[in-house]
Specification:
Layout: E1 9-11, H1 12-15, E2 16-21, E3 35-41, E4 46-47, E5 50-51, E6 58-62, E7 77-80, E8 82-83, E9 88-90, E10 99-100, E11 104-109, H2 115-122, H3 125-133, E12 142-143, H4 146-150, E13 153-155, H5 159-200
Length: 210
C-alpha cells in the first residue's frame, strides 16, 4: 500500500525543463511557397484527459516559422490557456513531433517528475479551482500565460512514489482503453447481427403483387 506524506509544494516552473505556448495557425489557403499545411493539436483534440489523434486537423502556417520551437515531445503535458474549458493531457508516443496550437501551453518536465501525475493533478477539482483563481479573465473564458502556469504550486511527491503512482494510472488507462475497445466490438457485432436479420427476412415481392 502506498503511503503519502505531502507537506511541501513546488512551482511548476521549478519542475519544468521548458514551458511554452503553441503556434498561431491559419485556415486561409496559401500557396506552398508562402506556407505549409501541417497537423496541429488543438483544444478540441483533448477528450477525457487524452489526445484524440484521429481528429487532429491540418492548418496553414507561415513558411518562415521556426516549427521546432512549437513541437511537442512524448510525455509533454498540454493544458488549455484560452477557451471555456480547462483541459489537460499527456502527449503519447504516436504524436511525438506534432505542433501545438496557440490556445494550448506545453509543460515539459524534468526527468525526476512524472508527467501523468501532473496531468492527473491538474484535472482534479482542487487544481482546477487554483487554475481558475489564477486566470486573467473575468468572464467564463479562461486566459493563462506561460508565466501564470509556471507560478502554480503542486504537491511534492517522492520519486519512488511517483513511479508507483504513474504505473498505477497507466495500468488503469490500459484496462480502460481495452474495455472501451471490447465494448465497441461487441456493439458492432450486435448491430451487424440485427441488421442482417432484417435484411434476410425482408419478404420478396412477386411479379403479380402491387
Amino acid at each position: 500500500m502506498l503511503e503519502l506524506s505531502i507537506s511541501k509544494k513546488i512551482h511548476i516552473s521549478h519542475m519544468a525543463e521548458k514551458i511554452f505556448q503553441g503556434i498561431s495557425p491559419s485556415r486561409r489557403t496559401r500557396s506552398l511557397d508562402s506556407g505549409k499545411s501541417i497537423p496541429i493539436i488543438n483544444v478540441k483534440d483533448i477528450v477525457n484527459g487524452r489526445i484524440n489523434a484521429d481528429g487532429i486537423d491540418a492548418f496553414i502556417v507561415a513558411g518562415d516559422k521556426d516549427f521546432e520551437r512549437y513541437m511537442v515531445r512524448v510525455d509533454d503535458v498540454v493544458i488549455t490557456c484560452r477557451g471555456t474549458l480547462l483541459k489537460t493531457a499527456v502527449v503519447p508516443e504516436n504524436l511525438d513531433g506534432y505542433l501545438i496550437a496557440s490556445n494550448l501551453i506545453v509543460i515539459r518536465l524534468k526527468e525526476n517528475f512524472e508527467s501523468v501525475l501532473l496531468s492527473t493533478y491538474l484535472q482534479s477539482p482542487k487544481a482546477q479551482k487554483i487554475l481558475l483563481a489564477n486566470s486573467r479573465s473575468s468572464t467564463m473564458q479562461v486566459a493563462f500565460t506561460v508565466s501564470d502556469i509556471g507560478k502554480i504550486e503542486v504537491p511534492v511527491i517522492p520519486p519512488e512514489t511517483q513511479k508507483k503512482l504513474s504505473s498505477l494510472i497507466n495500468t488503469a488507462e490500459n484496462y480502460y482503453n481495452s474495455a472501451i475497445e471490447a465494448a465497441n466490438i461487441r456493439r458492432e457485432i450486435a448491430y451487424s447481427i440485427t441488421l442482417n436479420y432484417f435484411h434476410e427476412n425482408i419478404p420478396t415481392r412477386t411479379g403479380g403483387e402491387n
